[in-house]
């Protein structure tokens, strides 16, 4: 057996390919060849190319029309009326206009690249990138070739319609900015003054604290330790939407909490702003106006879920974490003869974001 294995090993060592034959070893790094180029219908039929071009610029001009319609819908269905039908129509038609405008740009751009732009296959060999003159000239040639392949400089109708669609697409956004700063009027002389608007709410001396949204009055005895109540002025519950219910609620909303009186750290001029450990603070975050509604009864911290600002209710709702710039405004409270919680006055400072402090 050992003799046979030695013979086989000797035969393997002495083996050579026959004369005239070669052993072919495939190149492991050679890439596959490109498949044969398939011509599109638009490459072979000039009429099809013209149809594709018309389709592209028609989509872009439809985008222009949709953007203009979104702006027109903003004026046709004014949300300032307070009517729910106008608010629904405003959201619906503005959304449809903006959505269709962007959709038409997207479909037009895709159809342009698929049917009109050059689709020839190219192989780009890899090479070292150097900041030489030849490299810079090559970069310029890339833009020149891209312009030639896409037809951007040649096909003026498509190019101009795309520019028009892109410019028109921002018109609805610019139009909507108008609603952020309503103009003053004889009926509402402070409409365009955010400082004045945020300096006064519906709270006044004697206003009963009421549950949101039922408007039911709150007794001090019903506020237990560790509890948190969402509160509005009692008068607000009777206000209609067409009378500014949402606008007034956005400013007057309050969070009511109770802790042990000895746990409160109060400034000397605010010691009578609470009642038997019950405190009331604005629910509007002083960062960008999000609702501060997450209360942790063990730490007495309030958390704004939008940007994680935290306020210490036991210490004047001062900021202990996050981007908020100042404490939550406190609503001075007391009780009436029947034990119901009432406001001593309105807030003594503007509620909401701190932009009003900047001149």
From TrEMBL:
Coiled-coil features, chain-numbered ranges: none
Annotated localization: Cell membrane
InterPro entries, per the entry: QcrA_N (IPR045603), Rieske_2Fe-2S (IPR017941), Rieske_2Fe-2S_sf (IPR036922), Rieske_Fe-S_prot (IPR014349), Rieske_Fe-S_prot_C (IPR005805)
Domain Rieske, residue spans: 276-342
Statement: the UniProt record of this protein carries the keyword Lipoprotein: no
Keywords on record: 2Fe-2S, Cell membrane, Disulfide bond, Electron transport, Iron, Iron-sulfur, Membrane, Metal-binding, Oxidoreductase, Respiratory chain, Transmembrane, Transmembrane helix, Transport
Protein name: Cytochrome bc1 complex Rieske iron-sulfur subunit
Record field: transmembrane: 56-77, 92-112, 162-181
Protein origin, superkingdom: Bacteria
Organism: Microbacterium hatanonis
Task performed by this protein: Iron-sulfur subunit of the cytochrome bc1 complex, an essential component of the respiratory electron transport chain required for ATP synthesis. The bc1 complex catalyzes the oxidation of menaquinol and the reduction of cytochrome c in the respiratory chain. The bc1 complex operates through a Q-cycle mechanism that couples electron transfer to generation of the proton gradient that drives ATP synthesis.
């Amino acid at each position: 057996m050992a003799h046979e294995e030695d013979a086989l090993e000797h035969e393997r060592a002495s083996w050579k390919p026959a004369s005239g034959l070669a052993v072919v070893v495939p190149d492991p790094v050679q890439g596959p060849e490109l498949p044969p180029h398939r011509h599109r219908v638009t490459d072979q039929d000039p009429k099809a190319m013209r149809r594709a071009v018309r389709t592209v610029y028609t989509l872009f001009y439809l985008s222009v029309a949709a953007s203009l319609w979104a702006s027109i819908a903003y004026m046709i269905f004014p949300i300032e009326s307070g009517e729910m039908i106008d608010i629904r129509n405003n959201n619906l038609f503005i959304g449809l206009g903006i959505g269709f405008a962007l959709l038409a740009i997207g479909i037009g751009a895709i159809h342009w690249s698929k049917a009109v732009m050059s689709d020839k296959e190219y192989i780009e060999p890899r090479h070292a990138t150097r900041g030489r003159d030849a490299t810079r000239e090559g970069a310029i040639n890339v833009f020149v070739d891209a312009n030639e392949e896409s037809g951007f400089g040649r096909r003026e109708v498509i190019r101009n319609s795309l520019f028009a669609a892109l410019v028109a697409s921002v018109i609805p956004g610019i139009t909507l900015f108008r609603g952020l700063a309503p103009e003053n009027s004889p009926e509402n002389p402070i409409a365009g003054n955010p400082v004045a608007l945020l300096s006064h709410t519906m709270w006044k001396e004697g206003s009963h604290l009421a549950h949101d949204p039922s408007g039911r009055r709150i007794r001090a005895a019903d506020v237990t330790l560790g509890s948190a109540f969402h509160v509005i002025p009692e008068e607000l519950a009777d206000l209609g939407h067409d009378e500014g219910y949402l606008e007034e609620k956005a400013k007057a909303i309050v969070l009511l909490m109770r802790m042990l009186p000895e746990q409160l750290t109060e400034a000397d001029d605010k010691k009578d702003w609470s009642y038997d450990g019950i405190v009331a603070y604005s629910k509007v975050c002083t960062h960008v106006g999000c609702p501060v509604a997450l209360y942790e009864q063990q730490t007495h911290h309030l958390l704004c879920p939008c940007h994680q600002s935290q306020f210490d209710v036991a210490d004047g709702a001062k900021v202990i974490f996050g981007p908020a710039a100042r404490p939550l405004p406190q609503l001075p409270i007391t009780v009436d003869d029947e034990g119901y919680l009432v406001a001593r006055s309105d807030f003594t400072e503007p509620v909401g974001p701190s932009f009003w402090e900047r001149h």
